[in-house]
C-alpha cells in the first residue's frame, strides 16, 4: 500500500496546484482609471477628473491617430516643438477638444489655456468621444510633438 500512496501523491498534488492556478487566472483584472462614477475623484467645482484610459478611446474623425499626429506637428510650433515636448488636452463627452496645454497636464481651466496652443487647436475638428461602461466620458490625451523633416 505505501508504494501506491507514494505514486499517487505527486499526481494529486499536481492536480491541486493546476486547479489553484486556473482559478487565479480567471480572476478579472480591473482596467486602470476605470472605476464607477460614484468612486471617481472629484475636481474643484464638483467636476469629475477625466479618464486617461477607457474601454473605447476617442477617435479623431479626420483620419485617426496618424492624421492627429500630423495636425499637431504642423500646428503647434515654437519652443514646444523641441525633442521631448508634449501637448495634453481633454476630449469631452461631445467630441470637442478642451483645455489644450504644453506638457503632461491639461490647463487648469479654459481661461488658463495658452493663447497660442488654443488657437492651434481651434481648427482641429471633432473626435468620436471615449466611452466607459457604455456612456460617453471625458478623456485626457497626451501626444508627443514630432518635428517634420524637410
UniProtKB/TrEMBL annotation:
<feature type="signal peptide">
    <location>
        <begin position="1"/>
        <end position="24"/>
    </location>
</feature>
<protein>
    <recommendedName>
        <fullName>TonB protein C-terminal</fullName>
    </recommendedName>
</protein>
<keyword id="KW-0732">Signal</keyword>
Amino acid at each position: 500500500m505505501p508504494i501506491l500512496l507514494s505514486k499517487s501523491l505527486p499526481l494529486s498534488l499536481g492536480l491541486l496546484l493546476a486547479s489553484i492556478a486556473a482559478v487565479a487566472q480567471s480572476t478579472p483584472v480591473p482596467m486602470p482609471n476605470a472605476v464607477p462614477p460614484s468612486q471617481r475623484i472629484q475636481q474643484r467645482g464638483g467636476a469629475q477628473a477625466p479618464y486617461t484610459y477607457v474601454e473605447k478611446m476617442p477617435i479623431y474623425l479626420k483620419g485617426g491617430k496618424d492624421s492627429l499626429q500630423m495636425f499637431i506637428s504642423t500646428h503647434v510650433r515654437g519652443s514646444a516643438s523641441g525633442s521631448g515636448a508634449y501637448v495634453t488636452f481633454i476630449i469631452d463627452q461631445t467630441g470637442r477638444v478642451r483645455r489644450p496645454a504644453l506638457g503632461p497636464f491639461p490647463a487648469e481651466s479654459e481661461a488658463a489655456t495658452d493663447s497660442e496652443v488654443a488657437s492651434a487647436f481651434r481648427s482641429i475638428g471633432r473626435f468620436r468621444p471615449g466611452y466607459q461602461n457604455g456612456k460617453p466620458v471625458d478623456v485626457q490625451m497626451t501626444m508627443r510633438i514630432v518635428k517634420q523633416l524637410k
